[in-house]
Amino acid sequence: MLRRTIASLKSSISLHITEEASIHNAYHCRTFTTQSPLHLREKDRICPKHIDSVITFVLGGPGSGKGTQCAKIVETFGFKHLSAGDLLRKEIVSDSEYGSMILDTIREGKIVPSEVTVKLILRELESGDNHKFLIDGFPRSEENRIAFEHITGSEPNFVLFFDCPEEEMVKRVLSRNQGRIDDNIDTIKKRLKVFESLNLPVIDYYAKKGKLHRINAVGTEDEIFEQVRPVFAACEKKATIT
Ligand SMILES: Nc1ncnc2c1ncn2[C@@H]1O[C@H](COP(=O)(O)OP(=O)(O)O)[C@@H](O)[C@H]1O
Ligand SMILES: Nc1ccn([C@@H]2O[C@H](COP(=O)(O)OP(=O)(O)O)[C@@H](O)[C@H]2O)c(=O)n1
Ligand SMILES: [Mg+2]
Fold first, then answer.
1. Which helix (H) or strand (E) holds 208?
2. What would you give as a GO molecular function for this chain, any one (predicted)?
């Protein structure tokens, strides 16, 4: 099914998804018509495998501590961690057709086209048996968000936002020491601008939908996790009750 999904995505997703039949091969079940912000008349579909999934988006500026807190959530609550940035970096070294485009985009602090990123995320959602996912660093733009919703037919159960002052983010990124091509002051400045102009609207969108959990990202890693823990504990409790 995964191969079919990827094949159909390759041919159909330039944000003008018209090949309903090919997507329908991979996604059947509930369908209804929606009018999207991109004015696409779409069938919203839910992948059978995702019906019972818990999907959490983890947002925040560069260096706000998303990856660090995701590791703690994985350890404590057994989620599978999908970092959009890591998936894109793996794609660069895997000789993929998109590698050089992704490298250039990351070096410039810009956002990789949604069809590429969503495809990589979908591949991970489809693999393995875990049904609880943390999708870290995604969606980073309204285009990312809309593409995910259209392609998977799903929305996140909830969204974490690590709210961190810029100075602190810059300090953390500059001392991250992971050899990343985008962890330099020039690219960080660009990433912060992109965060403000493209990612904040997504955060606002989920706040308005009542799905956003804002976390104060200043403090020790453990202090921050104590704000994160109740969000997931409540989610576990709800799953036990229902
Ligand atoms: N609460 C914290 N206080 C200080 N440094 C932190 C904290 N959380 C993470 N870091 C460090 O900041 C850097 C960026 O964290 P990371 O989790 O990679 O952020 P993001 O994924 O949001 O870019 C890393 O070097 C990490 O060890
Ligand atoms: N949804 C995404 C996520 C990351 N990216 C790219 O990957 C880079 C690194 O993302 P990341 O999530 O690993 O970065 P951090 O916020 O963890 O520092 C971003 O600056 C973008 O260039 C993207 O294009 N689209
Ligand atoms: Mg990260």
1. helix 200-208
2. CMP kinase activity
- For atom 24 of ligand 1, the residue with the nearest CA is 176
What is the best residue among 138, 162, 172, 194 to mutate for testing ligand 1's pocket, by most ligand atoms within 8 Å of CB?
172
Burial class (CB in 10 A: 0-12, 13-18, 19+), 62: buried
**Total domain count for the chain?**
1
pLDDT digits (tens, 9 = 90+) for 83-101: 999 999 999 999 899 999 9
Is there a contact between 217 and 164 (Cβ–Cβ < 8 Å)? yes
Q: Determine contact, residues 44/153, Cβ cutoff 8 Å.
A: yes
* Structural domain contains residue 87: yes
| Residue range 176-191, pLDDT digits in tens | 999 999 999 999 999 9
Does residue 172 line the site of ligand 2, with CB under 6 A? no
Does residue 174 fall inside a structural domain? yes
CATH code for the domain in which residue 211 is found:
3.40.50.300
Residue nearest to atom 15 of ligand 2 (CA): 62
- Interface ipTM above 0.90: yes
Mean pLDDT of the chain: 83
Instruction: Supply the pTM of this predicted model.
Output: 0.85
* 175 within a domain of the structure (yes/no): yes
Domain membership flag for residue 165: yes
Q: In whole angstroms, give the CA distance from residue 191 to residue 183.
A: 10
Whether cis (ω within 30° of 0) applies to the bond prior to 165 is: no
Give the structural domain span for 64: 50-241
Q: How far apart are CA 25 and CA 35, in angstroms?
A: 22
